[in-house]
Amino acid sequence: FVIQECYVQNTAREYAKIYAAEAEPLEGFGEVPEIIPIFLVHRPANNIPYATVEEELVGEFVKYSVRDGKEVNFLRRDSEAGQKCCTFQHWVYEKTSGSLLVTDLQGVGMKLTDVGIATLAKGYKGFKGNCSISFIEQFRALHQCNKYCEMLGLKSLRTTHQKQRKATSMKSKNLPNSSPIKKTVPKKAREPRDFISSEH
């Protein structure tokens, strides 16, 4: 368990570094959330031979993303750190074509720790997360884009679904004037959307 905790947090940290490299140069984006490193320590003389060590975070500890999606967290929605964490989730989701999501973003200000990762059942590039696939489904349903999502040019998850639904219903009618539909469909067709798994 301890080894997996290190593996997950340090993997999420690598995604956060790439996100920072893309977001920081954008005018007006400002500070970017950082996932602090976690280290595995082997203590052969101890009854519990493995332990983790990380920087101590001092200040108000806030959960910016929640596992079940039911809790309304105003600090997540209204604070700069909370909005940037939600944008980070959206960015990772888009980067991995909806195959991976960093969850349980929590910490003090922009410094985050004890995060989780959800992946599709088959994993992503050989990596399997430690959280349920249902987190990906919840994120897709509940995420509300903010100005930081817009700055990064991320596609709204809501409009993508609506456009697809509209395009499908219009196509089935075989309208003769279907040229505007053709413009929107090819872009969306590349995005894998059939993720819903029966596993919980």
TrEMBL record:
Reaction(s) catalysed by this chain's protein: L-seryl-[protein] + ATP = O-phospho-L-seryl-[protein] + ADP + H(+); L-threonyl-[protein] + ATP = O-phospho-L-threonyl-[protein] + ADP + H(+)
Renumbered residue ranges of the record's region Disordered: 160-200
Pfam families recorded: Alpha_kinase (PF02816)
GO CC entries: basolateral plasma membrane
EC class name: transferase
Record bears the keyword Nucleotidyltransferase: no
Bias-annotated ranges (Basic and acidic residues): 188-200
Domain of life of the organism encoding this protein: Eukaryota
Biased composition (Polar residues): 169-181
Alpha-type protein kinase domain ranges (all copies): 1-157
Subcellular locations according to the entry: Basolateral cell membrane
Annotated GO MF terms: ATP binding; protein serine/threonine kinase activity
Role played: Protein kinase that recognizes phosphorylation sites in which the surrounding peptides have an alpha-helical conformation. Regulates cardiac development and cardiomyocyte differentiation by negatively regulating Wnt/beta-catenin signaling.
Record protein name field: Alpha-protein kinase 2
